[in-house]
Amino acid sequence: MTQPSILLDGLPVPFVDGQTIMDAAMAADIFIPHLCHHPEFKPQGSCKLCTVKANGRYVSACTLPARDGMEVENNSPDLNDKRRTLLQMLFVEGNHFCPSCEKSGNCMLQALAYELEMLSPHFDQFYPNRAVDASHPEVLLDFNRCILCELCVRASRDVDRKSVFSLSGRGIDKHLIVNAESGRLADTDFSWADKAAHVCPVGVILKKRSGFAVPIGKRRYDVEPIGMQVERLAARSADEES
Amino acid sequence: MGAEREPERGAERVVVGDKRKLRLATASLAGCFGCHMSLLDIDERLFELVERVDFDRSPLTDIKHCGACDIGLIEGGICNAENVHVLREFRSHCKVLIAVGACAVNGGLPAQRNHLDLGQCLQEIYLTAPDIVGGKIPNDPELPLPLDKVHPIHEIVRIDYFIPGCPPSGDAIWKFLTDLLDGRTPRLGHPLLHFD
Ligand code: SF4
Ligand code: SF4
Ligand code: FES
């Protein structure tokens, strides 16, 4: 029997049973923009950056199982316009001042903005006021850049078995919290060795005293656009020394 | 003011991509002049630029008010009342208005004061900081009134194009301008498009 395949932007892409559209695409080295997806974690489908059109309907590529003969539209002006709008909303909801962010050059949100040619935030800025948590000896948390992807939540709960992080509140008030009575990272058993310290796609969970070590021009996405790094996207920074 | 000065120049209807010399104006609002430095960073291509455009209001010409222009480059966000007036003057005189740099695009570094109380900031800087003796908050009527919050310029007027970067490189500015002057859709690809 021949292997089942989907038709991704007209290209036959094989998959094995149980794989999602995202899995099949990544295995074939084809980039579908994504933020809350991480190849090592169960998909949750919340950011919608991976929206594709499967048999004419908008769906999340990271959660929809591939089916034989499925026609999937991915890299099209229509979808990229919608994705750019999602990015713009993420940018204005937080405080994304890239020039002073330690993650700049290694950040997936920023790299996607480059990939999709997002030149402006378009919407009015929210400028939220979120205090940073610098209590932990090794790690700084800057909540101003959190995009609520829950990767740290999933990693800490499912891999580290510590459940250090969770989301709290609803709608626009939804935010990331630290599971300690004080709410401070120092009052948890979190450590830089945790998986949760190495999954954040943006600049929230940062190692202290190591920022800006790699010069501009040499950082991960300076060197190569995100769309050409599909097989390396599980590692969140090229200079990850852990 | 600019508005009265300009009827004769307004008659010069120039289409971008036309052989005629275009008029270019530049201004820095709540920025650091880094983007203007980047404009100078196009180096000897400045000669080619002045072949193709005449500079109107700009720190390079010292003209104080903007006349009818084809292209306006704005660096910096909006942090005081004067910024708003200058920006509106540019919008009403420039056919194509371009936001240049992180501060114009999203407020940038100056906007990082937005979660602080402006009154408290002024008090701390001019009255209560260590080493200050007999200080007072400046209130000369000549000084523009600071705004409560810093804003990117697209929140005040319509902006036609954005060149992000802190600052955008001379190469990025050159690519954008030459695309525009040659009548192409301006585009910045990797690695010219960056936010820092
Ligand atoms: S997290 Fe990414 S997008 Fe946000 S400020 Fe940092 S580099 Fe920029
Ligand atoms: S801190 Fe990072 S990993 Fe955790 S939810 Fe926010 S963006 Fe996602
Ligand atoms: S990557 Fe699929 S919804 Fe976020």
Automatic annotation (TrEMBL), chain A:
Gene Ontology terms: biological process: ATP synthesis coupled electron transport
- Keyword match Iron: yes
Q: Tell me the ranges covered by the 4Fe-4S His(Cys)3-ligated-type domain, including all copies.
A: 78-117
Keywords tagged on the record: 4Fe-4S, Homeobox, Iron, Iron-sulfur, Metal-binding, Oxidoreductase
Q: Which GO terms describe its cellular component?
A: membrane
Superkingdom assignment = Bacteria
Which Enzyme Commission number(s) are listed? 1.12.1.2
Q: Which InterPro entries match?
A: 2Fe-2S_ferredoxin-like_sf, 2Fe-2S_ferredoxin-type, NAD-red_Hydgase_HoxS_gsu, NADH_UbQ_OxRdtase_75kDa_su_CS, NADH_UbQ_OxRdtase_Gsu_4Fe4S-bd
The coenzyme or cofactor needed here is: [4Fe-4S] cluster
Q: Where is the 2Fe-2S ferredoxin-type domain?
A: 2-78
The Swiss-Prot or TrEMBL record annotates one GO molecular function as:
metal ion binding
Q: Does the keyword Repeat apply?
A: no
Which CDD domains does the protein's record reference? fer2
The UniProt entry's sequence similarity note says: Belongs to the complex I 75 kDa subunit family.
Q: What is this protein called?
A: NAD-reducing hydrogenase HoxS subunit gamma
TrEMBL record, chain B:
Q: Which InterPro entries match?
A: Hydrogenase_assoc-protein, NADH_UbQ_OxRdtase-like_20kDa, NiFe_Hase_small_N_sf
The alphabetical list of record keywords is: 3Fe-4S, Homeobox, Iron, Iron-sulfur, Metal-binding, Oxidoreductase
Q: Is Iron-sulfur found in the keyword set?
A: yes
Q: Does the keyword Signal apply?
A: no
Q: Which GO terms describe its molecular function?
A: 3 iron, 4 sulfur cluster binding; DNA binding; hydrogen dehydrogenase activity
The kind of enzyme this is, by top-level EC class, is: oxidoreductase
| Protein name in UniProt | NAD-reducing hydrogenase HoxS subunit delta
Transmembrane ranges, per UniProt, are: none
Required co-factors? [3Fe-4S] cluster
Source superkingdom: Bacteria
Q: Look up the EC number in the record and give it.
A: 1.12.1.2
Q: Which gene encodes it?
A: hoxY
Against Pfam families, the record matches this protein to:
Oxidored_q6
Location of the NADH:ubiquinone oxidoreductase-like 20kDa subunit domain: 32-179
